[in-house]
Design brief:
Layout (H helix, E strand, L loop, with lengths): L1 H13 L4 E8 L5 E6 L2 H14 L5 H10 L4 E9 L7 H16 L14 H25 L1
Antiparallel strand pairs: 1-2, 1-3
Length: about 140
């Protein structure tokens, strides 16, 4: 019996998981959350568990889950990546997610995603934080 269990565990671990982009659809208000994962069944399980526990990081999604109930949410695979045809799965997955985000625009009233900052915006924030720190450091010197 133990050998059979070990064999089943080994087989499970060696079985490749579907990789791709998914959505969680609220069927009441049609809002969606778009995400990506190298283990789609695993991410669906984690998302459901977090929502059931009331601990999901996305507070808007969590509030709607609490208000409308689990029966009003659908977990769907939007597109899968074939690992055999990909040289860089994570990069391909990021591009595929961006394509779906651009297509579906799941922001604001349409969804639960937050817009990602572009490179220029991230650089501006870094520069702003640096200059804020320098100004703060200089003002501390004057206080002494």
């Amino acid at each position: 019996m133990d050998n059979k269990k070990r064999e089943m565990k080994r087989e499970y671990k060696e079985t490749p998981r579907p990789i791709g982009v998914y959505q969680i659809l609220n069927t009441v208000n049609s809002k969606i959350l778009v995400g990506q994962s190298v283990n789609l069944p695993g991410i669906f399980n984690r998302e459901r568990c977090q929502l059931k526990d009331g601990s999901h990081i996305n507070k808007q999604l969590q509030n709607d889950w609490n208000s409308f109930g689990a029966e009003n949410f659908v977990f769907e695979v939007l597109e899968e990546i074939n690992p055999a045809t990909s040289n860089d799965i994570k990069a391909d997955l990021a591009v595929l997610e961006e394509i779906w985000l651009d297509t579906l625009q799941p922001y604001g009233e349409r969804g639960y995603n937050q817009r990602k900052k572009g490179t220029a915006e991230r650089l501006q924030n870094i520069m702003r934080n640096r200059s804020d720190r320098r100004v703060g450091d200089e003002s501390e010197d004057f206080d002494h």
